[in-house]
Design a protein that fits this description.
The complex is a heterodimer of chains A (about 180) and B (about 625).
Chain A lengths: L1 E8 L4 H14 L2 E6 L10 E10 L16 E6 L4 H5 L3 E10 L8 E3 L1 H7 L6 H10 L8 H11 L4 H19 L8
Parallel strand pairs in A: 1-4, 4-5, 5-6
Antiparallel strand pairs in A: 1-3, 2-3
Chain B lengths: L2 E6 H11 L4 E4 L7 H8 L9 E4 L3 H13 L4 E6 H6 L1 H10 L5 E6 L13 H8 L3 E2 L4 H18 L3 E3 L3 H4 L1 E7 L15 H4 L3 H19 L7 E2 L2 H5 L12 E5 L2 H12 L8 E3 L8 H10 L2 E5 L5 H5 L6 E2 L14 H11 L25 H12 L29 H13 L10 E5 H17 L5 E6 L28 H7 L4 E5 L4 H16 L6 E6 L17 E3 L8 H6 L4 E2 L8 E2 L10 H4 L5 E3 L1
Parallel strand pairs in B: 2-3, 2-4, 4-5, 5-7, 6-7, 10-11, 10-12, 12-13, 14-15, 15-17, 16-17
Antiparallel strand pairs in B: 1-8, 9-11, 18-21, 19-20
Classes of the chains: A alpha/beta (about 180), B alpha/beta (about 625).
């Protein structure tokens, strides 16, 4: 069982990251519930997805599509303001990963935007962050699972999506593997 | 599309409609309902051609088109958001009396919160007012099942049935098995029966009696009797009291049932307190009501958004909810709020886990390069002291630019502009200029009668029709200017300028809002017309396709913009233009262009008084 909040600003790809995680969970034979933001907030407002993953056959699983404050295991912040806006969802001992140039409230952070710009694909910052977070050993799945799903979803942006994910993953492996100096 | 899939609530509903071999679906887009017909349109290739789908001009028309199909014995659905049902209230009330022959389902999606609506009204009350049954799903999977049940119920009693998902069901996702869809086989057959389909008041009285009888039978229908969610867990313990006091139970419906079940599992209450889910909140089963009132001393009713079940209990002593102040009278019932209500009601000692009140970090804004932005900028420039009646759509965000003063409901910009004109007309001096703005889809939806009315009542104001060739806010559904049905059949394109002229408007100009200077000149000419001896309403059509609409992906020349050394850091472009691609740096520092967001529309070149932007 895992509860994940994905937070960002409309247009950053919150829905795509949520979908990627959800399809991966499905492939791993989990069941899931999601709550998404649609409508006006997608025009540059702050948007949030709730993703709850649980075993398909054991009860009780989850029934509500919403995560309660202090119940999320993981917070993925695609925007530096995400932690401030949605940090209250994290449970004690939960883990936050944030696209930011500096630390906020103890979140692991990576400057995903700059890395994505260097790859000439500024809109792929979401995947840089996910690649980074996937190496932290807290998510329900491994980096390889997510890459498989990316490939399966396909699309004309697949090569650049994979490059962005791998760039984040590389940073994460250096950091969480203890090779790079601690940023936390 | 078969196998185990993750479906959006609205996709699951679309699935349920197809599994019911529905032959027609009509809708006007609106959050949170838009993706239901949208999904059917996307699945067009998997649906038999005989199934008619349409984005209708408004909800009233959508309702009536689908209802006639049901009169021929074919299953039909009409889909809208809750405030759309207000527009369709007229046919709804009448259709309850006439009844239907082919199964007829009205889907009205509610928006507790509200997150994307002007009210958080409860469609179930509309069902109650119309005297039709309403089903209230708690999850995407249940919404799919209830779509099928709704058709059966409708056909059994020859009555329209409402399916009322809330935003958390519509925009929730869940994994479920998907199989193929049956082929619709209903052939159209219309049995003439003027006493029913064209009933005069005398016959209407009779039909009303018939409707009352149907409702009574439905409320006693065992198939829709509410069940106890935790019956199995309770079986070993029942009747056991939790607190030593008299027995209590909880009655819920919709997504609230899903929240409460999970909270109660966490609090280890599922084997202690009976939890009932009501799938049909109106008409509430009378046997269920009597049983609960006989068995329990305190009944907590938890539902969104208005007290529909609570009122039907007709008991002020034992029933707790909104009338006792136990449940907040407005707002979404978030799980954390429900947690507090439960612990209070059951006298449990559990810490509150309410979210801290965080300041809204950022507000939504028009996209970079949005043609509405330059139109609003021009309106502010030309009518600095004006009154700006606004309307429903992306361009409601003209609020941020100070160019929208009122937003009431679809089409009201035009009628309100008229009302403002008549309010101020006796004022010989200092009467404010009035400049209303309405989107193209909204104009078609509800603006045309308002415009005719303004013309024939002698109103004088400027109306800007923001024609971006699509219904942008809800995901780019086509407007009547598109010239094609959802089947791809060519049909007449309805011309907005011709339509406006036919409404009796003498001044009509079409301009590109990107060409700021000539657009502003047009607004001035329009204003002159409103002041002239034979003047009246003047219409300027701001025509420029939505940049986000894939149909018009290359409709503009993309310029590369950079900031020059002339930028003084005055931030006028940030405060009065609010383009998200123009990023302020520090209090007085020069701005910078976010190239990832910049659309290269080049309008900012005309905005800066210092020449702070240039093309590369």
């Amino acid at each position: 069982m895992q509860q994940i909040i994905v937070s960002g600003v409309g247009g950053q790809g919150v829905l795509f990251i949520t979908r990627l995680l959800a399809e991966t969970a499905l492939k791993l034979n989990h069941s899931l519930l999601i709550s998404e933001t649609h409508g006006m907030a997608q025009r540059g407002g702050i948007v949030i997805s709730h993703l709850k993953i649980f075993s398909r056959h054991s009860s009780p699983g989850f029934t509500s599509p919403l995560i309660r404050p202090q119940h999320a295991d993981i917070l993925l912040g695609l925007h530096p303001e995400s932690i401030q806006a949605h940090g209250f969802y994290l449970t004690k001992g939960g883990t936050a990963y944030c696209n930011s140039i500096e630390e906020t409230n103890g979140a692991f952070f990576i400057d995903a935007t700059t890395i994505a710009v260097e790859l000439a694909s500024p809109l792929s910052a979401n995947l840089v962050l996910l690649g980074y977070a996937s190496t932290g050993k807290k998510l329900f799945c491994a980096p390889g699972h997510l890459m498989d799903t990316l490939v399966q979803l396909g699309g004309k942006n697949l090569p650049i999506s994979l490059r962005a994910f791998e760039a984040g993953k590389k940073e994460g492996e250096l950091f969480f593997g203890g090779i790079a100096p601690s940023k936390k | 599309m078969t196998g185990r899939k993750i479906l959006l609530g609205n996709e699951a509903i679309a699935c349920g409609l197809l599994e019911s071999a529905c032959t027609m679906a009509t809708s006007y887009p609106g959050t949170p309902a838009s993706e239901i017909l949208g999904t059917l349109v996307e699945m067009k290739s998997e649906i038999p051609r005989e199934v008619h789908l349409e984005w209708s001009i408004n909800e009233k028309v959508a309702f009536e088109v689908a209802l006639a199909n049901s009169f021929t014995g074919r299953r039909s659905v009409t889909i809208m958001k809750q405030v759309g049902l207000n527009v369709a209230a007229d046919p709804l009330m009448s259709a309850a009396y006439t009844g239907v022959t082919g199964g007829f389902v009205v889907i009205s999606a509610d928006d507790p919160g509200p997150q994307s609506s002007q009210t958080e009204q409860d469609s179930r009350f509309m069902a109650m007012l119309a005297k039709i049954p309403v089903l209230d799903p708690s999850s995407p999977l249940e919404a799919r099942k209830m779509a099928k049940e709704a058709f059966l119920l409708s056909e059994k009693y020859e009555i329209p049935v409402m399916l009322r998902p809330t935003i958390r069901v519509c925009h929730g996702r869940q994994d479920m098995e998907v199989e193929g869809f049956p082929f619709p086989k209903d052939q159209a057959a219309f049995q003439k029966n003027p006493g029913r389909w064209a009933a005069t008041p005398e016959f209407r009285f009779m039909l009303h009696g018939l409707l009352n009888k149907k409702l009574e039978e439905i409320s006693e229908d065992m198939h829709h009797r509410p069940g106890m969610i935790n019956a199995e867990l309770m079986a070993d313990h029942f009747p056991q009291t939790l607190t030593g006091e008299n027995e209590v139970c909880i009655v819920t419906s919709g997504v609230v049932a899903a929240h409460v079940q999970e909270i109660m599992a966490d609090l280890q209450l599922l084997d202690k307190v009976p939890l009932y889910q009501v799938s049909m909140p109106f008409p509430l089963s009378s046997a269920f009501r009597d049983e609960l009132l006989g068995r329990y001393d305190r009944i907590l009713v938890l539902e969104e958004t208005y007290p529909v079940m609570e009122l039907q209990f007709r008991n002020g002593e034992k029933v707790f909810g909104r009338h006792t102040g136990t449940v907040p009278p407005s707002g979404e019932l978030l799980p954390e709020i429900l947690g507090d209500i439960l612990t209070d009601f059951l006298h449990l000692d559990a810490p509150s886990k309410r979210a801290p009140s965080v300041l809204p970090v950022r507000r939504p804004t028009l996209c970079a390069g949005c043609p509405h932005r330059s139109a609003f900028y021009a309106i502010r420039k030309v009518f600095p002291e004006g009154i700006y009646p606004g309307d429903m759509g992306c361009y409601t965000l003209g609020l941020n630019l100070g160019a929208v003063d009122t937003v009431l409901c679809m089409g009201a910009s035009i009628s309100q502009a008229s009302g403002f004109y008549h309010a101020f007309k006796s004022q010989k001096t200092d009467a404010p200029s009035i400049c209303a703005a309405v989107g193209d889809s909204t104009f078609f939806h509800a603006g045309i009668p308002a415009l005719i009315n303004a013309v024939v009542q002698g109103a004088r104001f400027v109306l800007v029709i923001l024609d971006n060739r699509t219904t942008a806010i809800t995901g780019h559904q086509p407007t009547p200017t598109f010239g094609k049905t959802l089947d791809g059949m060519e049909v007449s394109k309805v011309s907005i300028p011709d339509l406006v002229r036919a409404c009796g408007v003498q001044f009509v100009e079409t301009e590109d809002p990107y060409a700021l200077e000539s657009f502003m000149k047009s607004l001035k000419r329009a204003h002159d017309h409103t002041l002239g001896a034979r003047g009246g309403v003047a219409v300027v059509i701001a025509q420029r396709p939505c940049l986000m609409d894939r149909l018009h992906a290359d409709s503009w020349n993309r310029m590369e913009i950079q900031v020059t050394e002339e930028c003084t850091g005055c931030h006028l472009c940030v405060t009065t233009f609010e383009c998200p691609a123009i990023v302020p740096q520090g209090e007085q520092g020069p701005v910078r262009i976010d190239q990832a967001l910049c659309s290269g529309c080049g309008v900012c070149l005309d905005i800066c008084p210092h020449g702070g932007f240039e093309t590369i």
